[in-house]
């Protein structure tokens, strides 16, 4: 079973009790649990539990791409159960051998106190953007049934405006210049009724985007 918490595209978290129950279930069926914790650190109002707190049989994948803002550096890590380290080693040696040296030095700099201060300020800025964009989109008529506690996405039901989220996203892009992602990229649950908003741009630009969307939806 592969899970992501916090999740892309919903930004939601799986709580520790649920993670523990899932881990027990997967183990009882002889399966393997892999949890993508790439958005750990980017959480608001709460902490994100790691699956490693409730299982020593789970695999965790993570990377420097999100919290550490090093998207494109191609640097990440896996935490694997002791029994699978050798097999993971063999895979790694055949797939990529080693992470690049510049990326490793950059990641060392990511742990300096001054960098961590920047990352914390950035986390707080994401929270401000979420707190602006969530009510603004609801006001426009998008249905977002919960307050996402992590990552930097809002996954919105757009059924009030369209029966085809992909055509809708294309129209929005062409007519307003605002880029949103159709649900199609995120699995089989009513993708035609959903679009994802990313708040990875400044508050000023988010405000301008909402203004343009409002004008677009009024026609
Ligand atoms: C849940 C999740 N996992 C993994 C990735 C990929 O990250 P990386 O840049 O480390 O390949 C993403 C990127 O959007 C993501 O959202």
Provide a descriptive summary of the structure in words.
- This protein has 219 residues and is of the alpha/beta class.
- It has two domains: 110 residues, Type I PLP-dependent aspartate aminotransferase-like (Major domain) (Aspartate Aminotransferase, domain 2); 105 residues, Aspartate Aminotransferase, domain 1.
- It is built from six helices and seven strands; from the N terminus they run βαβββαααβαββα.
- The strands form two sheets. A four-stranded mixed beta sheet has the order 1-2-3-4, with no helix packed on it. A three-stranded antiparallel beta sheet has the order 5-7-6, with helices on one face.
- The radius of gyration is 19 Å and the shape is globular.
- The N and C termini lie far apart (44 Å).
- The mean pLDDT is 97.
- Bound molecules: pyridoxal-5'-phosphate (PLP).
- The site of pyridoxal-5'-phosphate has 8 residues, from loops.
């Amino acid at each position: 079973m592969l899970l992501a918490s916090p999740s892309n595209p919903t930004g939601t978290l799986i709580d520790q009790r649920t993670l523990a129950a899932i881990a027990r279930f997967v183990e009882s069926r002889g399966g393997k649990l892999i949890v993508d914790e790439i958005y750990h650190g980017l959480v608001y109002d709460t902490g994100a539990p790691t699956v490693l707190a409730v299982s020593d049989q789970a695999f965790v994948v993570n990377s420097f791409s999100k919290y550490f803002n090093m998207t494109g550096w191609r640097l990440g890590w896996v935490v694997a159960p002791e029994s699978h380290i050798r097999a993971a080693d063999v895979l790694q040696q055949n797939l990529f051998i080693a992470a690049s040296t510049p990326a490793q030095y950059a990641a060392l700099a990511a742990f300096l106190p001054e960098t961590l201060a920047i990352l914390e300020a950035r986390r707080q800025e994401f929270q401000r953007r979420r707190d602006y964009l969530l009510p603004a989109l609801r006001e426009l008529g998008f249905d977002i049934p919960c307050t996402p506690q992590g990552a930097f996405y809002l996954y919105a039901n757009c059924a009030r405006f369209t029966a085809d989220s992909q055509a809708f996203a294309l129209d929005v892009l062409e007519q307003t210049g605002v880029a949103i992602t159709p649900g199609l990229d995120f699995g089989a649950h009513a993708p035609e009724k959903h679009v994802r908003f990313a708040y990875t741009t400044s508050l000023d630009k988010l405000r301008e985007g909402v203004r343009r969307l409002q004008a677009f939806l009024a026609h």
